[in-house]
Every structure is written in structure tokens, then in C-alpha cells.
Design brief:
CATH superfamily: 2,3-Dihydroxybiphenyl 1,2-Dioxygenase, domain 1
Strand order of the largest sheet: 2-3-4-1-13-16-15-14
Strand content: 25-35%
Helix content: 10-25%
CATH class: Alpha Beta
Number of helices: 5
Shape: globular
Number of domains: 1
Order of helices and strands: EHEEEEHEEEEHEEEEHEEEH
Number of strands: 16
Structural class: alpha+beta
Radius of gyration: 19 Å
CATH architecture: Roll
Largest sheet: 8 strands, mixed
Length: 314
């Protein structure tokens, strides 16, 4: 038995200085800071979410900024590269913009598509790809208009310690269509318009080490709580150990580590990021889980101040 996920819900990574994180993803890439909250288990650490104007599943990248922590190492058992999709015809804009901000990039081809590959300030590997699908992102900031704005995830490149097992899970359980093979990669496609292309590296490399500049886990979409429980039962019947449902305020989550050692999450689309603040004010105020609200003054004092601001181009 298999189901079909629409694709990526969000990607969660570890980075360094929080202001550098905000400057890059909001100031350089033009994404919206849709939620500013804290790590539920370590409330003196931010949990920051960036996405399109609405914070739609398939557009959200989320971070724990741990200044001064150790650097990670990219390798097996991780999301190796996070891919963003931009409107067709916008590559020259992004080439010029990345260059103007002093960001080195390279252009490469994979499965007949061109990619711009670069890194964020903390070493997270990113790509841009032009595609026609997916809704236009209407969020405009710091000279990024809707004609060039990142729509959301194009997908991801997975580095598995057991590519055959990961491929079986994606295709036979999670409903991804195996559409092509090229060189060292197998391409899978889901039914969604964003976050729908997964390229699985078919060979092994060095084992990855978690730390700054690395993806912690990738989350797949469930339509709602009921759908998530069906997913949980299905994954368990295939021999995986799945956590109980975790309430993350803006979605509910279950987790399991697949046989290639990549940590997978299945997250619900609702309730979304406007549940606790108005849509037009999302990301402006520090939003705390209920259990930490009584500690607000102390937490606001302990957390480094961060600001979404327009950046000057060199």
C-alpha cells in the first residue's frame, strides 16, 4: 500500500548568528519572515520561519540559529542541497543580485535544467531553478519584485547512506513517481506544484555530521490531522518507528528516520502561521508557546535582537 504526498512541507536547518540568518533569507533572497518564535525545548534559542507572503506549505524554510556552535559536515543521512524555484526568465536578475551581494555562485545542469548553486553565510547549500509551475510569490522586499521572487521549494537533493532503501520508500510508500535517472542521481516527482522534485544521489559518500550549515530534517505534507494519522499507520506497517504526534502550534508533526538515515517528518498543512497574529503582521512580534508566555520578559532580554531590514547592495 502507498499514499501520495504533495511534496515538501518545510525544511529545517541549523545556522549560526540569527541576524546574519535574517539578513540573508529576508534581505538577500527576499523571503518573508513569517514567524519569530523559540525552540520549544530550548526557549533561549530562536526558531525562525521564512517563506512566501502567506507562509504556505512548500515554501517554508525554518532555522534554529546557534551562534558559536560547531560546524556540521555535509554527507550521507542528510538533505544535501535545498532547491528553490524562481519564475522563468529571472536567472539574470538573480545572477546579478548574488554577485552584487558578494555571493559566489556556479551554474550547472541536471536533468535538462539549469541551476544556480551557492551557499548561505553559514554553509547551507542552496540552488535556484527556473520553472513555470507554482503560484507567484506576491511578497516584494528589498528590490525583489514578484517577477523575480522565490515561489517556494523546487525540491531537494537527498544524500542517503542506503539509496536503494530510500528510493523504495519514496516510490513504493510515499507515492513519488520515479521519472528519470542521470549520472549519479535518480529523480522523483510528487503531485504538488512546489517542493515536488526530489533528486536522490545513488552513490554513497562520507557520513554527514549535524551542526551549523546543515539541514536537520525534511518534512512532507499531510492534508490534515486525519491524513497524518493514516500516514503514521502506513509508515509503521513498513517497519519504521514513528513518534507520537507533536503539537508545533502552526502544524502537527510526526517523525521517523528512514533507512538511509535521513530524518523525515510528516507535517499537517493546517492551522498555518496566521493562527496567532494577523496576516499582515506575521513575523513582527516574538510569538511564544503558551508554556513560556509567563517568561516573556526574561526571554526577550536573553535573545539577541533581530531586525528585518533592507540591505545595501555593494
Amino acid at each position: 500500500m502507498k499514499k501520495e504526498t504533495a511534496g515538501i512541507h518545510h525544511i529545517w536547518a541549523i545556522v549560526g548568528n540569527p541576524q546574519e540568518n535574517v539578513d540573508f533569507y529576508a534581505g538577500v533572497l527576499g523571503l518573508r519572515l513569517v514567524k519569530k518564535t523559540v525552540n520549544f525545548d530550548d526557549p533561549e534559542t530562536y526558531h525562525l520561519y521564512f517563506g512566501n507572503e502567506d507562509g504556505t506549505p512548500g515554501t517554508i524554510i525554518t532555522f534554529f540559529p546557534w551562534s558559536g556552535s560547531y560546524k556540521g559536515r555535509i554527507g550521507d543521512g542528510q538533505v544535501g542541497i535545498t532547491t528553490y524555484v524562481v519564475p522563468e526568465g529571472s536567472f539574470s536578475f538573480w545572477e546579478n543580485r548574488l554577485t552584487a551581494f558578494g555571493i559566489n555562485w556556479v551554474k550547472l545542469d541536471r536533468f535538462g535544467e539549469q541551476y544556480l548553486r551557492f551557499e548561505d553565510p553559514h554553509g547551507l547549500k542552496l540552488e535556484l531553478v527556473e520553472r513555470d509551475g507554482g503560484q507567484v510569490n506576491t511578497w516584494e522586499f528589498n528590490r525583489v519584485s514578484r517577477n523575480e521572487a522565490i515561489k517556494g521549494f523546487g525540491g531537494a537533493v537527498l544524500f542517503s547512506s542506503n539509496p536503494q532503501q530510500t528510493a523504495t520508500l519514496l516510490g513504493d510508500v510515499m507515492g513519488f513517481e520515479r521519472v528519470s535517472e542521470e549520472g549519479d542521481f535518480i529523480r522523483f516527482k510528487s503531485t504538488g506544484e512546489l517542493g515536488n522534485i526530489i533528486d536522490l544521489r545513488s552513490s554513497n559518500g562520507v557520513r554527514g555530521l549535524m551542526g551549523i550549515g546543515k539541514v536537520h530534517h525534511i518534512a512532507w505534507r499531510a492534508a490534515d490531522d486525519k491524513d497524518q494519522l493514516v500516514w503514521k499507520e502506513l509508515i509503521e506497517t513498513h517497519g519504521y518507528r514513528v513518534t507520537p504526534v507533536q503539537d508545533r502550534d502552526y502544524f502537527n508533526a510526526i517523525y521517523f528516520r528512514e533507512h538511509g538515515e535521513i530524518l523525515f517528518e510528516i507535517a499537517t498543512d493546517p492551522p498555518g502561521f496566521a493562527i496567532d497574529e494577523p496576516h499582515d503582521r506575521m513575523g513582527e512580534r516574538l510569538m511564544l508557546p503558551q508554556q513560556y508566555e509567563k517568561h516573556r520578559a526574561k526571554l526577550e532580554e536573553s535573545l539577541d535582537p533581530i531586525e528585518v531590514k533592507e540591505l545595501d547592495i555593494e
